Amino acid sequence: MRIYEQLFIVRPDATEPEIDSFLEQITGVINGAGGKVEKLEKWGIRKLAYPVEKRHEGYYVLLQYSSQPDVVKEIERRFRVSDLVLRYLTVRIDEKLKWLEKRKRQRERRARQKPAAEPAAIPGEPVAQE
Amino acid sequence: MAETKGGKPISASQQTTGTDKAVVTRRQFFRRKKVCRFCVEKIDDIDYKDVKLLSAFITERGRIIPRRLSGVCSPHQRRLSNAIKQARNIALLPFTTR
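^ Those are the sequences you sent over. The predicted structure of the assembly is below.
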């Protein structure tokens, strides 16, 4: 199982029910293949940094899920076939999450070591001066 | 350091003026040492979705600001440039603006 993140731009003139039914299809694919949707965020209509297919706005949707790699292939195929999706970006994030977790643990360990070292050093100084 | 050097060879006045000049020019070109913002603020996660953060590291024309100008350390610059390139692909950031 790997964790993926897909951010895609839906045509801004698509209606809300249209988007919802499309998202339902996608989540159906994931669940059908034994994956699990972890996050589904609709950012709504945003201005694009540059025109895509002659449009200056887009409806952004963020989808995070864990699944087998072949699910990504199927979803990307659906994105390409569907005329709703202007553009998509797929990122595999499980290694990044792991790395972030590791960094966080390191930070915590260092934070714990520091306060422990300081009280020991401060009482030591006056003794040395005397 | 400049004082002791200047005190010994009094006869060679050219040398002392030379060192003085060097001190002055060094001070003129002195710049504050830049520090990596990600190291200071302890930002581990440089995410392509964080447009607000990334847009601080691109120029008005949409180019990535080089490390020598922004002072970002090389591991973070690498992550940063990757994130900016990803954001460009999904139209969160511009490739160029004319």
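The domain at 2-95 of chain A is CATH 3.30.70.60 (Alpha-Beta Plaits). The first helix of chain A runs from residue 16 to 32.

Shout if you want it in another format.
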